[in-house]
Amino acid sequence: MRKIILLLCCAIISSITFAQTESEHLTFKGIPIDGSLNSFVRKLKTQNLIYIGKKNGFAAFMGEFAAYKNCTIVIKSLEQKDLVYQAIVTFPSCETWSSLSSNYFTIKDMLSKKYGEPSFCIEEFQSHSEPDDDRTKMRYVQSNRCIYRTFFGTSKGNIQLFILPQDCFVVLVYSDKINGEVASNEAMDDL
After folding, report:
1. Residue 14 lies in a domain
2. Which residue range(s) make up the domain with 160?
3. Is 39 part of any domain?
4. Structural domain tally of the chain?
5. What is the residue-level pLDDT of the chain in tens, covering all 191 positions?
6. Would you tell me how many other CB atoms lie within 10 Å of the CB of residue 10?
7. pTM (two decimals)
8. Is residue 148 situated within a structural domain?
9. What are the start-end ranges of the H helices in the chain?
């Protein structure tokens, strides 16, 4: 009987400990998007990224993300409250549609495996007919007539993946739900 009570107590304690470590915030590189900018920067510095600097509520890093080298990572905080609410990754610029679309679809596939099917997705060129060659597709991207955007909604926040027109690179944005609402409420107070 003592062993059963002891095992029951251990099970309760471990479930309480697990519940306390499970974050209610969206994570970026395994780190909850929460807390002060300095605290988040300290945690990201342990991820083998090159710290570029911090200014006006933003912190920037360079390094590898999801097996892609030379990515830029920007962490956004609500400066008035020193509260991190967003992480943005820009992947290296591409010169061809095949490499740009490969980056987009590879990352989209990885996100789908982790978060499930996207909540919203649009992938189109703004033309009467689908461009059929790499060069034409890149001209559409460069002239802002290419819309490739995928949105994943989770209970902890949102993840957006898109091709940035004109600059020809893929962008990934993690927005924490709780802290994003704080940032939105701050903006609404200004109106």
Report:
1. no
2. 25-190
3. yes
4. 1
5. 444 443 333 334 444 433 344 689 999 999 999 999 999 999 999 998 999 999 999 999 999 999 999 999 999 999 888 999 999 999 999 999 999 999 999 999 999 999 999 999 999 999 888 898 999 999 999 999 999 999 999 999 999 999 998 889 999 999 999 999 988 887 777 77
6. 10
7. 0.85
8. yes
9. 2-21, 37-45, 97-115, 134-142, 177-190
